Amino acid sequence: MGKQVMEGFISDIRKNKIVIREPYKEPKPEVREQPQAEAAEPCASKETPPTERFFQRKGSQQKKGSHGDLEKLEQEYIHRFLGDLSPREESNLIQLRQKIGAQREKIPDDAVLLRFLRARDFNLEKAWDMLCHHLTWRKHYQVDRLIECWEPSPAVRQFYSGGWHHHDLKGHPVYVFRLGQMDVKGLLKTVGEADLLKQVLAHEEEGLQRCEQATQTSPGAVSSVTIVCDMEGVSLRHLWRPGLRVLDRVIQVVEANYPETMGRLLVVRAPRIFPILWALVSPFIDETTRKKIVVYGGNDFQEEGGLRDYIAEDYIPDFLGGPCPCAVPTGGVVPKELYREKSGDEPHGEDGCALESAYTVTNV
Hints:
5 strands; alpha/beta; disordered C terminus; five-stranded mixed beta sheet
């Protein structure tokens, strides 16, 4: 199994440009040797990438029978970039990689495969089914091209009150969402539901990139983000039925295609109407995700067991009583003169937009 793991991770090692350096040794006194002894073991050329030089050394170690060092390297790599895996989890990861590799030319990296396995409690068949639906969805709606070409409109930049804000105590990227300050109805009537979803997908993709970057600088794997949702200002206007329908659909798309990307959701300053809002959206959130949600009413988030248990004092946003300036837009009411012309009370949409998920979320 160890050999299969290493073969599966070779592409990831090259991607992350890992360099294994020899331990420092005291230099020995210079001794002139015979010319034929200078080329006892070939060295890598200057043009050879660091990873290629590493594999050449690994190969020479194998010839010498250093199998224990190779197994240690495998476990260190798995712990460093994927987290601790049980033998069963490691086996299912290998099987999923082999299964998809037999049918598709491009294989998602192991961090992606692990997210789908974890979303289905490492049930291989269920994870395979979920992953296939995701790849079909991604190809059908050309998500990669959509994200690459996506440029938010001025209205989205100004009134969409969500964005990234440093990291938590464990190194996970922090996403701040000021729902109470966002005019959901105004945004939907101005930019439409398709553009709103594109903004959500762009942030999801950026979150994956930030997790990958955090893994490079953290002692262990970082595969999820922490979300701080500020509900100060949430009122009955946020219970606009067409907006709630769009919210439900967005949740379904995210749950189906970006599983296990949310490590913790911290809901702060929850208002009295929060139970009503929760009753409306919770049916679309699976049980695993619900267990990651922590809700604080009023100023409870400032007490023991609150926000500071997850985020360092220096990074608490200023609008939550901390010292750290937060660059997330404050939102506000969208001027009606920015609304698009449309009859009725429904938000704008686009035929064939990515809101239609190819996968139905179910509670597991």
